[in-house]
Design brief:
Layout (H helix, E strand, L loop, with lengths): L4 E5 L3 E3 H7 L6 H9 L3 E3 L2 E2 L6 E3 L3 E4 L2 E7 L9
Parallel strand pairs: 1-7
Antiparallel strand pairs: 2-5, 3-4, 3-6, 6-7
Length: 81
């Protein structure tokens, strides 16, 4: 499993299905549904089968070898622009 990369969100929370697409872990929202239902998605190391699960800052989502962390949009990403 790889080190999670940060994916910034605008609000305080985001639904799991939306986050998978935002983090480019799936290509489309319709692709998110079956992988979640099949138990292939982990949230903070535990299997999550609810597409509408609310994620908050700091949650880590894993699909296969990739992991993404919910981050604050205002956090410094280290880029000069």
């Amino acid at each position: 499993m790889s080190e999670p990369y940060d994916v910034a969100i605008r609000d305080q929370s985001i639904r799991l299905g939306q986050f998978l697409k935002l983090a480019n872990l799936v290509d489309s929202g319709s692709e998110a549904k079956p992988v979640i239902q099949d138990g292939a998605v982990l949230v903070n190391g535990e299997v999550e089968t609810r597409r509408g699960r609310q994620l908050v800052l700091g949650d880590v989502v894993t699909l296969g070898p990739q992991s993404a962390r919910v981050a604050d949009e205002s956090a410094d990403d280290g880029l000069p622009w």
